[in-house]
Amino acid sequence: MTATAARRSDRRISPVFVGILAVTAVTGWATWTGFAEQPGVAVFLFVTAAWIVSLCLHEYAHARTALHSGDISVGSKGYLTLNPLKYTHALLSIVLPVLFVIMGGIGLPGGAVFIERGRIRGRWKHSLISAAGPLTNVLFAAVCTAPFWLDALDGVPTDFRFALAFLALLQVTAAILNFLPVPGLDGYGVIEPWLSYKIKRQVEPFAPFGLLFVFALLWVPSVNHAFFDLIDSILAGLGISDLETYCGQDLYRFWQTSDFCTVSS
């Protein structure tokens, strides 16, 4: 096999990712048309598949930016194929974020692709690699919210609108959490290249616990309320109401769906 062929195979889109896209498309169609007998099941599958797609794109953005910044090893690791099974921690990157969506309706930052930072020169490149992932969530949120802030909801079925609103909430929460300057999160990765060696050495032992620290803080009622007030304010600015995100989550959790959103719609 030639080097050129190897590079092409390293970048070929994985059938696993194509399958996830197919599930997103089919369940999105079922949600739009009302084809499913239980709309909540279709919404659940649509939002979950779309959320996994966004997680794959998040990690791909890190890897692709790293490739163009000098780390040519990302291809051989399978990071450019969009295959979630190739990530360093598939459990953290896919399974755990999906579980958090099911349990709490929050966009948990995913796991990681391993970037060989020693191959990359320049602090701006290191910062951009870290920022590329959450910026993907911002872009995904812009796409999900576009029908709302463009006032283009005429003809959009209610269940699909609710599903988009909930998916937008997940993307906004993921972007904000990822951009926090906490060790172990992408926000810290953005500022880390600009810190002194001494500070980086002092902070390094805490990196594995950064995400746990964030979620411990979110258990504090005042912090939790402030965080979700911020999320609601951002979504309201994008034309999405509390009712729409609530009903989106209500439909998503089809095993305990109430009649409130059916009556309200």
Outline of this structure?
This protein is mostly helical and 265 residues long.
What does this structure look like?
By secondary structure, this protein is mostly helical. Helices cover 67% and strands 0% of the residues. It is built from twelve helices and no strands. The chain is globular, with a radius of gyration of 19 Å. The N terminus is likely disordered. Its cofactor is Zn(2+). This is Site-2 protease family protein. It is found in: Cell membrane. InterPro entries: Metallopeptidase_M50B, Rip2-like.
- Count up the helices: 12
Question: What distance separates the N and C termini?
Answer: 58 Å
Helix content range of the residues, please?
A: 55-70%
Instruction: Tell me the overall shape.
Output: globular
Count every beta strand, where a strand is a DSSP E run of 2 or more residues.
0
Strand-and-helix sequence, N→C? HHHHHHHHHHHH
Unreliable parts: 1-6
Beta-strand residue percentage: under 5%
Structural class: mainly alpha
Rounded average pLDDT: 87
Largest sheet: none
Radius of gyration: 19 Å
InterPro entries: Metallopeptidase_M50B, Rip2-like
Transmembrane segments: 16-35, 90-115, 127-150, 162-182, 203-220
Keywords: Cell membrane, Hydrolase, Membrane, Metal-binding, Metalloprotease, Protease, Transmembrane, Transmembrane helix, Zinc
GO molecular function: peptidase activity
